[in-house]
Amino acid sequence: MTTVRLPLFPLNSVLFPGLVLPLNIFEERYRAMMRELLKTGEDEPRRFAVVAIRDGREVAPTAPGLPDQTALPERGPAAGFGPDPIQAFHRVGCIADAATVREREDGSFEVLATGTTRVRLISVDSSGPFLTAELEELPEDAGDGAGVLAEGVLRAFRNYQKRLAGARERSLTGAELPDEPSVVSYLVAAAAVLDIPAKQRLLQAPDIATRLAEELKLLRTETAVIRHLPSLPAVDLTRAPTSPN
């Protein structure tokens, strides 16, 4: 088992390998993380792990509020995640490589990272200025029939795109879609309008073929649902929404 220890960045979203993640860093715990990453040489990857939050707050509460007006604000690397942070996170996440880390005058950061490798969360350490985690890198097995399934998923995804465009009353751009099964599986998982539990199930699929088979079912179901909806949000196929941390 290959393990690695990296800074941990929990988000209210799922990051997939190959997908771009823009971040707007303003909390001190994540500023500290970025300052640490900047110590890494520019010719080396500046890596951290992203996990989706199962139960907790992406941004820690900063002031008393309802129902308890006298409550003290939560502080520290695990703020918003409870006494045992690992229980607040989904156990499969993705390593991110920060290609751009730009510090602003006010000490906040603008970060642009890309997902690289799936990992399983083994333990979480909250003793430092930011969360760190021991992680097991997960293999990327093809499974049976991944190539044929990828072709079916691409056809279903194009139909899904057409339905989305129709619901938004706008035309599609003629973007070229990849045909490599693993890339197809992650692109579709990221681009489909699905909730976090559904995207998480796709991320942690045991192999590419299983992920593609599940996507084929989801796309057919979602395409049928879209026929009855008047409008839907626009979707960027390669970029997640910017996280405010």
Automatic annotation (TrEMBL):
Pfam families: LON_substr_bdg. It comes from the Bacteria. PROSITE patterns: LON_N. InterPro entries: Lon_prtase_N, Lon_prtase_N_sf, PUA-like_sf. Residues 6-223 form the Lon N-terminal domain. Coiled coil: none annotated. This is LON peptidase substrate-binding domain-containing protein. It comes from Streptomyces virginiae (Streptomyces cinnamonensis).
